[in-house]
Amino acid sequence: MPVSLVFTADTHVPKRARELPHALWAAIDSADVVFHAGDWVDVALLDELEQRSRLLVGVVGNNDHGVLRERLPEEAWIELDGVQFVVVHETGQATGREARCAARFSDADVLVFGHSHIPWDTTAPSGLRLVNPGSPTDRRRQPHGTFVTAVADAGRLRDVTFHPVPPRR
User: Fold this and answer.
1) How far apart are CA 37 and CA 115, in angstroms?
2) Which of these, 23, 47, 126, 151, is most buried using a 10 Å CB contact count?
3) Under CATH, what is the fold of the domain 3-165?
């Protein structure tokens, strides 16, 4: 049976924004599984996501400390409807990323990662799909913030959609 997914990362709440955008909360509330690829910054967001998500798969980022480091792993693996996911925060520089990650995560079908705040969706020659949802709260050099929705269905990831989040005024 298809599994609806949300990918987010680099939320930096409450440093970059006081809360997540309403569109992201709406997606989280309707998703079967929510992935967060690190840089939460405050444990309050982890607590809220755990309460509102049917299933949360999260990892710690380089800006996460204290209780976040105690509660979250650096790497998380989960299989959903025949798709093997791995989640990490950092993957290193963009140059050579696909080959480097394909070697490191050879048993995965999809790698969800963060850190750069730059949306990314590529497939390595090995077939590993690499998805960085960007940041919904700190767009850096991007035209807007982003998060991703997708579906795991019968062994494949489909309907991968990057959702723009307009800057707050």
Assistant:
1) 8
2) 151
3) Purple Acid Phosphatase; chain A, domain 2 (3.60.21)
